[in-house]
Amino acid sequence: MTTNDFGGVYCAAATPFTQDRSPDHAAFAQHCHALIEEGCDGIALLGTTGEANSLGLKERQELLERVIEAGIAPSRLMPGTAQTSVADTVALTRHAVEAGVKAVVLLPPFYYKCVSDEGLFRAYADIIDQVTDDRLRVILYHIPQISGVAISQALITRLQAAYPGIVIGIKDSSGDLDNMRRTIAECPDCAVMAGADPLMLPLLQSGGAGCITASSNLVAADLRIVFDKWNDPTHQAEVESAQARINAWRELTNAYVQLPTVKTMLARRRGLDSWTRVRPPFIELSDEERASVLTRMEQLEHEDKA
Amino acid sequence: MTTNDFGGVYCAAATPFTQDRSPDHAAFAQHCHALIEEGCDGIALLGTTGEANSLGLKERQELLERVIEAGIAPSRLMPGTAQTSVADTVALTRHAVEAGVKAVVLLPPFYYKCVSDEGLFRAYADIIDQVTDDRLRVILYHIPQISGVAISQALITRLQAAYPGIVIGIKDSSGDLDNMRRTIAECPDCAVMAGADPLMLPLLQSGGAGCITASSNLVAADLRIVFDKWNDPTHQAEVESAQARINAWRELTNAYVQLPTVKTMLARRRGLDSWTRVRPPFIELSDEERASVLTRMEQLEHEDKA
User: Fold this and answer.
1) What is the spatial distance between Cα A115 and Cα A120, in angstroms, rounded to a whole number?
2) Please, what CATH class does the domain formed by B8-224 belong to?
3) What residues in B contact A20, CB-CB < 8 Å?
4) Dihedral pair phi/psi, residue A154, rounded to 5°
5) A281 φ, ψ to 5°?
């Protein structure tokens, strides 16, 4: 377990779009309220699943402002605020900190590849120094299969030494449990959050701090059970069946391209077409894919009730 | 040869920084004037070599405005104007078109990976449709080893069919001559520009349209010779020795990480420290690396004169 108290169940929330593909603020607020009711500690909006990198800088700021206006406490929010440049990342991060968010989730600068840890350290240091706000809390974001830029344990250690109490955790979406365990072992002050739902239970058993995941858009209640009861021997069967349900749902989200599949499932769950829409470079599921996903979703709902 | 008349020697210009790492506008304008004197048809500023993705949106716009104010004709400028989102790409592109640039160089949306050609088509189509300006000319940018997102011949064909006279060429920085030849064969209306200097002569011999390269910051005069005389049998020896000099200089730029190496060499060439500075995630060359590069640079200058 980390020496800082950060942890819990966080949803990497998807972003619904209206017919003209603007963010549907009403549908998003409704979703965030529902996620908290379903058991999420908070919402990691504007991440990979949130299509943040398909939104403009102003749209990103507006999405955060509007969801706070709709009554979601900023202390429950952890937006992604990274851009490729320090300058724009500072602007988004400062805006989020001033809005009172719990933390920001920060990708490394992700355009250039094969860069050094020294270069990544300087980028994060520049961002933190230029935001100059004691309220800033940073969750690093390790998702090398998409960003193309890995965050090493050496880099985490160096950042936490330079910015204690500010750099507090990492979202590890590599899907590599061994890497998460190495981080827990080598970076005891770093809260390690699983980016992939099937790893929630094994990660907690290894000393991890919780999750920030895409499937939690759909299975928040089961993640809540796993998080709250994993360490209680009297609830072992309940925890294991919750994790099994999580895994089954997660498997379905990977039937086709994950993002439009999750959003197709959300459209059914929340009863709103805004959820089916994606921005390029993503495309919606085909009618056949959609039908297949919804049929399987019905089966899963039936099994969950059984 | 392509059916459109776009082509020539374009420099993927580096960006100098002052001591506080702001763009050094005076040094940049001086460099652009020198490049044109040295033989460049124009400047592809704000690309990968220009550290565009380490500059904020406002800084990118200001760099373009200031170099035009300093007397570089906008008709010689081809800025990179892509961001990960359509919204910000449209803003940068519209700004550049209104400034009168010759063309813009457009990366595909580069955050998400494994996306479909359909999704990439929609992203480019949205950008072009939303800019809604007949003066727009687009050079696609294929650099999969950095962007992680390739531009296929099928995508080029589809974009050129949908936007004839607007999508006019591609900067192919893959280093893969076979891929460039496939583009020339399959996309006869597409001007294929080499992104790697050693391929200038073989690409021109294959029907390519010229180059947009990093080494042209240093060897523009030799690229001019190759471009102007490659097809004239009476100048074969001159062309081949120009290409050999280009290759030797290019080899030196790859002695260490390319970008800080090119900038170290530019600092000597232009006599200004602003060129040595880079923004994170890049770091400057070490003193030893710098000394080694400058020694070899002196040798190359001596050989060039011999």
Assistant:
1) 7
2) alpha beta
3) none
4) -65, -40
5) -85, 5
ipTM (interface predicted TM)? 0.97
CA-based nearest distance B114→chain A, Å: 9
Please state which of the four CATH numbers 3.20.20.70, 3.90.1150.10, 3.90.1150.180, 3.40.120.10 is assigned to the domain occupying A8-229: 3.20.20.70
Chain A residue with minimal CA distance to B20? A126
Is A171 part of the annotated catalytic residue set?
Answer: yes
Q: DSSP string of A250-284?
A: HHHHTSS-HHHHHHHHHHHHHT-GGGG---TT--P
Q: Is the Cβ pair A122, B56 closer than 8 Å? A: no
- Residue at A185: amino acid letter: A
Amino acid at B225: I
Q: What does the pLDDT profile of chain A (306 residues) look like in tens digits?
A: 455 789 999 999 999 999 999 999 999 999 999 999 999 999 999 999 999 999 999 999 999 999 999 999 999 999 999 999 999 999 999 999 999 999 999 999 999 999 999 999 999 999 999 999 999 999 999 999 999 999 999 999 999 999 999 999 999 999 999 999 999 999 999 999 999 999 999 999 999 999 999 999 999 999 999 999 999 999 999 999 999 999 999 999 999 999 999 999 999 999 999 999 999 999 999 999 999 999 999 999 999 887
